[in-house]
Amino acid sequence: MEKQFIPGLELSGYLFNEAIQPLLANHFPQLVYSAARLDRGSEVMGFDTPMSMDHGWGPKLTLFLNEEDYLTHHASLVEFFANHLPFTVHGFPTHFEGNLVDGGQMKLKEDYPLTHSISITTPERFFKATFHVDVSRAITAKEWLIIPHQRLRTVRAGQIYHDGLDRLAEIRSRFHWYPRDLWRYLLAGQWQRISQDAPFLGRTGIVGDDLGSQLLAGRLVTNLMNLAFLMAQEYAPYWKWFGTAFQELPIAEDLTPFFEAALKSTDWQSSERHLTQAYLRVIEAHNALHLTEPIPVRVEPFYQRPFLVPPAGEIISALRAAITDPEIQALPAGLGNINQLSDNTDLLDNLDHGEKLQILY
């Protein structure tokens, strides 16, 4: 097996163009299908590196059929590919062994059948499994709120290699970003999180709890980074790639020095000084979105205490006042979506758990 690294999305493109497409043209010439990589994996988000090749990585693809063809050809196509795929694509084995739940590991095999990573589904089945939504109808606000950002980002970042069904790209486009009023709701929820922590950075520090103050600095930086993703209309990935993806945001160049300095500070006054500069820059970015009337770019004392905080309450009120959709207006103030409710990995990775959160709304 050649070890020369190829980005995973590019490798999947080779798999489609050099193997899947010719095989289907020769053996299933009447079959109408789409092909893409929209599922999980660092490579689907474009963050894979040579280290990624040790598991869960390789020539993979999802083949989409209409429902009738899926019922007719699903099993036979799985078997067909197991007995007709080339043993390698650009030097990488198409056979996988090991823990297939975790994506398996490529291993060269020179006889059939192969255990391949070509999934067969329909657009409706795929989005039902991935987002737990029925794409034959409009998506409700409550359904939007329980789809984790990491899943939305993966589908948005992935690549469609062929859309013979003429449906896949259109369905994916519906999830490119939130409806405008729901976006306002989520921004208000993120500012709420910031407002709840901002005054405690100094309150803990002033009583000598330096560790507590540093923890709060970290929470505030994290919440400001999440706010930056929301303002940039970008879904944040899971923790492994959170910082990497943040650096791709236009505002990251301005905010990163303040964040790094706040996290390295050994006293609360220094942390507050750097975070104050971040607050001002973020308010400027908020005004540039034109989602509310302009908010004065300022920080202010927290009541009579010597702690500077952003005017989060004013921003939250302005965002909520601008919401006109009755469905969004009826949502609980400040609750936000599943990512704002929890960073629990099992919750964010299992939509069966996430669906139970709808009761909160």
Could you give the topology of this structure?
Blueprint: H1 8-27, E1 34-37, E2 61-64, H2 67-84, E3 88-89, E4 92-93, E5 96-97, E6 105-106, E7 118-121, H3 123-131, H4 141-145, H5 149-157, E8 159-163, H6 168-173, H7 180-197, H8 200-206, H9 210-231, H10 239-246, H11 252-264, H12 268-289, E9 300-301, E10 308-309, H13 312-321, H14 326-329, H15 338-341, H16 345-349, H17 351-355
Parallel strand pairs: 2-7
Antiparallel strand pairs: 1-2, 1-8, 3-4, 5-6, 9-10
Helix pairs in contact: 7-9, 7-13, 8-9, 8-12, 9-11, 9-12, 11-12
What does this structure look like?
The protein is of the alpha+beta class. The protein is 51% helix and 8% strand. The protein has 17 helices and 10 strands. It has helices at residues 8-27, 67-84, 123-131, 141-145, 149-157, 168-173, 180-197, 200-206, 210-231, 239-246, 252-264, 268-289, 312-321, 326-329, 338-341, 345-349, 351-355; strands spanning 34-37, 61-64, 88-89, 92-93, 96-97, 105-106, 118-121, 159-163, 300-301, 308-309.
Shape: elongated
Strand content: 5-15%
| DSSP helix fraction | 40-55%
Based on CA atoms alone, the radius of gyration comes out at: 24 Å
Low-pLDDT sequence parts: none
Mean pLDDT: 96
SSE order: HEEHEEEEEHHHEHHHHHHHEEHHHHH
Spatial arrangement of strands, main beta sheet: 7-2-1-8
Q: Count every helix, treating DSSP H or I runs of 4 or more residues as helices.
A: 17
How would you sum up the major sheet? 4 strands, mixed
How many β-strand runs? 10
Q: How many angstroms does the end-to-end distance come to? A: 51 Å
- State the domain count: 2
Which structural class best describes the helix and strand composition? alpha+beta
